[in-house]
Design goal:
Length: 296
């Protein structure tokens, strides 16, 4: 009978720890523990306590929920490259669209037109996932989309795992708090409070991770790069009309380049003509001098 009571008590203490590292306590200091064993049914055994622990562990396990009842959690990230006549003004419009959708701008950088550099703006925005499609459509309408990429990262398993670990720690803390109210000696109180501090620290850390993960899932992270049309990448013509436009622009560019070329070489031609004229005059003078000496 003593062995039976010992096993049952060990099962209760292990159940209170909820799978965490159990605190080595002196069971002689808990008067209510003996009373709990006395009040247990005669047929209650350590095996029954172990079975209850196994049921609790199964209920807390991440895989205990049905696959069809688990809500998928995805982190959405992407990049959007726009060209606009005034990138700085367009950046203000992008920020307004994001704010109107319930999102926020985590960072923003701008560069004005200085020393021949074209103006540019870059924003790192967070958009609620349920408003992502409509907000991106509104942003794309503010300029010309040069490139766009979106990617999804499934973090469902991480979310389920964190939720299960948090639930186990909360249950463990609750039971340790109950034991603390039953502690009869100072040594027992110190040991229980130490265990509580450890569990609470772990719980706070897991809650921080869970909150960060929830923020990443609830808000998509999009980088919006806005530049001037002058630096936009060249596109291949999509059809006959585009081909005509491209050919016309190429012809104009050729003539413009030719005019610039002749404008560059005109000063050199004038210099060469002047040097040739000087050389011709010198040669003519020498020829006259030579003729005069021959006549004399």
């Amino acid at each position: 009978m003593t062995l039976l009571r010992t096993l049952a008590l060990a099962g209760l203490v292990a159940l209170a720890a909820a799978g965490c590292t159990s605190t080595d306590m002196n069971s002689g200091g808990f008067e209510t523990a003996d009373q709990a064993v006395e009040s247990m049914p005669p047929n209650y055994s350590g095996d029954m306590a172990s079975e209850e622990m196994g049921v609790d562990a199964q209920n807390s396990a991440p895989g205990s929920q049905g696959a069809d009842t688990i809500e998928r959690s995805q982190i959405i990230t992407g990049d959007l490259y726009l060209t606009a006549d005034d990138p700085l003004v367009t950046a203000d419009a992008v920020e307004a669209e994001v704010t109107a959708a319930g999102g926020r701008v985590d960072s923003r950088s701008e560069s004005a037109e200085i020393d021949g550099q074209t103006p540019r703006a870059y924003l790192w925005v967070r958009i609620p996932t349920e408003e992502l499609e409509d907000t991106l459509d509104a942003i794309e309408a503010l300029g010309v989309v040069e490139s766009k990429t979106l990617s999804n990262q499934d973090v469902t398993l991480q979310v389920v795992d964190l939720d299960a670990r948090i639930a186990v720690l909360e249950e463990s803390i609750s039971r340790l708090q109950e034991l603390l109210t039953q502690a009869a000696t100072t040594a027992d109180i110190v040991e229980i409070e130490t265990a509580l501090s450890e569990r609470q620290g772990e719980l706070d850390s897991l809650n921080s991770q869970r909150n960060y993960l929830s923020d990443q899932v609830q808000y998509a992270s999009i980088g919006v790069d806005i530049r001037s049309p002058e630096v936009a990448p060249e596109r291949d013509p999509d059809g006959f009309v585009d081909g005509i436009v491209t050919g016309w622009q190429a012809m104009l560019a050729f003539f413009a380049g030719t005019i610039v070329f002749f404008g560059v070489i005109v000063p050199w031609v004038g210099l060469l003509v002047a040097l040739g004229l000087v050389i011709w005059l010198i040669a003519r003078l020498r020829r006259k001098n030579t003729t005069r000496r021959g006549e004399e």
